[in-house]
UniProtKB/TrEMBL annotation:
The chain crosses the membrane at residues 54-73, 93-113, 125-143, 149-167, 179-195, 201-220, 232-251, 271-292, 299-317, 323-341. This is Nucleotide/sugar transporter family protein. InterPro entries: Sugar_P_trans_dom, TPT_transporter. Residues 64-339 form the Sugar phosphate transporter domain. Pfam families: TPT. It comes from the Eukaryota. It comes from Rhynchospora pubera. One of its GO terms (cellular component) is membrane. Keywords: Membrane, Transmembrane, Transmembrane helix. The lineage of its organism: Eukaryota, Viridiplantae, Streptophyta, Embryophyta, Tracheophyta.
Amino acid sequence: MGLLQSILGRTGRRFMKRKDGDSGERGRALEELRGLLYNEMHTSEGAKRQQQRICGPVVAMSFNFVVAVSIIMANKLVMGRVGFNYPVALSLIHYAVAWLLMALLRAFSLLPVAPPSKSTPFSSLFLLGAVMSLSTGLANISLKHNSIGFYQMAKIAVTPTIVLAEFMILKKRVSLKKVIILGVVSAGVAVATVTDLEFNLFGACVALAWVVPSAINKILWSNMQQTSNWTALALMWKTTPITVFFFMVLMPLLDPPGIFAFSWNLNSTSAIFISAIFGFLLQWSGALALGATSATSHVVLGQFKTIVIMLGGYILFNSDPGPVSLCGAFVALCGMSYYTYLNLHSPMESGAQTSKLLKLKTIEDGENHADTKTVDSV
């Protein structure tokens, strides 16, 4: 080594030191990149940031809208042509298949990491799973024992219930302008879709019992994702087994007898499996939309879907809803458009708070990563 240094001289020694320094800088840069990628893929904070970057409000709500329309067609095929008239059992199959798909993602390390168990008590997850099963089960019973018009009126009642519940539980206030617009939207949807109001005492009681769990379900899904580092898939992974358990309890109580006598052949099994895939996508897209927007916006999206389906039947299949229903649909669409405009152009206080939280999380992650590197180097 001394012979080499005497040959190269002072200039060669400086070159070798600079080369060693460049290698060290590249090594540190690669180490920082590796730590950043690890945080993005293997921490709940990184997974949450990744979901927010990839799936914003427009993408999430568009995804949910397309899947919601598709599953209507799939369920009509299952309950109509296939003859599988067991709505709670069908929901049970949907959630069981969803859990198996998420287990497959987890086996390949593609399922986002959940926050630490101490950050969210098990009671909150249990409540969310139970409310979800009650919401879905009671909705199916309400549709079975009520006319379409009465069922639609119950769905419209979810909107003011969410506004009232968020004010009472979360102290969340809605501006007077938005309240008026939501009232206009609900009135337009009612005029457009409610054509038969056949009253059934048992069906009415079920519909009223469904409204509160449906509103609480949406509020919990939205609030838990926006206030904690839960992603849609991670929260689904934790709550789906609880929902499946409650569906197994509700199925013999709510479904008609004869499910074990159903003819399981290739055609019926394929149709039910396709419906289950859409069920998983509907649950996932709904969770993404609730995490990216709010419970109220998600309800307005559901009303928009109802109006689009009605107008689609009028335009494509020559159905005749009548001039009154068409006027109601026009009023509802105008109200939805203005509500969207208000959400996009009003002061985004919640968005600013979210950005601050993300910046704080990023700083904390950087400090934690620097501490980790220091420990590793010792």
